[in-house]
Structures are given as structure tokens and as C-alpha cells.
Specification:
The protein is mainly alpha-helical. It has one domain (about 25-125). Helices cover about 35% and strands about 5% of the residues. It has helices spanning about 25-40, 50-60, 75-80, 85-95, and strands at about 110-115, 125. Strand 1 (about 110-115) and strand 2 form a beta hairpin. Helix 1 (about 25-40) runs antiparallel to helix 3 (about 75-80) and helix 2 runs parallel beside helix 3 (about 75-80). The chain is globular, with a radius of gyration of 17 Å. The protein starts with about 20 loop residues before the first helix and ends in a 9-residue tail after the last strand.
Length: about 140
């Protein structure tokens, strides 16, 4: 985990542009912890505690301030880090002339872009099939 960039990040760059955050590894570890907690029936704060401040930081880092994510805090951390960074997603959609939906795309979900019909503008619909591993 500590191999690679180990300096002060340039906050003017995109998240993980200097390969210091290792978001893909963090996401994987939170996913493993979530699976472990559910399989053992130990999804309790005293074993898997994450503060609201940590989750808020992850959301801010990914560009999802104020967005609600399902599940216990450790599962939320996994889902937040599994998201494509918000501005990157917006750029990709704009480059393809697709409107930005108003909620994140959880694992297993998809975007549907509905074409213009009867004078109605194109719109994006998020189809979700993600079921939280643990209900809080």
C-alpha cells in the first residue's frame, strides 16, 4: 500500500493523479472488510468503525458531497470509493452529449440515455440493482 508516491499531494490535480491515494486498493480493502463483517455477522461499530467525518472526506474527495450511500459506514466507504470521480464522469458524459444523472452509479447498475422524443430533451436514467450487504 505504501509503495510509490509518498509526498505532499498537489491539490490542484485530480484525485489520485500522483498515484498517492491508491483509491482502487482502498476500495478493494473496504469491500473485503464489508464481506468479512457480513459473513461473520459482526457488522458492529466496535469492530468496523468509520466516523461521519471520514465518510464526508471520501465523498468530498470523489465529488459526491451530500450524496447518500446505502449500508453500514464501512460499506458506504466501499461504495463511495467504487464511484468514478464525479467531475470525470461529468466530462465523459458531456463529451458524449449525454446528460448527467442526479445520483451515483452503484456497482452492477447502468446508465440509460434516452434520446429526444416529442420535444423532450435527452435524459439519463440510472438503473440500480445494488442491494446493501447490511441494513443499518
Amino acid at each position: 500500500m505504501h509503495e510509490g508516491f509518498n509526498g505532499r499531494p498537489d491539490l490542484g490535480l485530480l484525485v489520485d493523479a500522483q498515484n498517492g491515494e491508491k483509491l482502487h486498493k482502498m476500495e478493494r480493502l473496504y469491500s473485503i472488510l464489508t464481506d468479512d463483517a457480513v459473513e461473520r455477522g459482526l457488522m458492529r461499530e466496535e469492530f468496523y468503525f468509520l466516523s461521519d467525518e471520514v465518510l464526508t472526506c471520501f465523498k468530498r474527495m470523489q465529488g459526491y458531497d451530500g450524496t447518500k450511500f446505502p449500508g453500514a459506514p464501512i460499506e458506504q466507504a466501499y461504495l463511495i470509493l467504487a464511484e468514478c470521480e464525479h467531475e470525470m464522469r461529468r466530462s465523459i458524459l458531456e463529451a458524449n452529449d449525454a446528460p448527467m444523472p442526479d445520483r451515483p452509479l452503484l456497482p452492477g447498475g447502468m446508465y440509460l440515455v434516452l434520446s429526444e422524443q416529442d420535444g423532450q430533451p435527452r435524459r439519463s436514467v440510472v438503473v440500480q440493482n445494488y442491494v446493501p450487504r447490511w441494513k443499518v
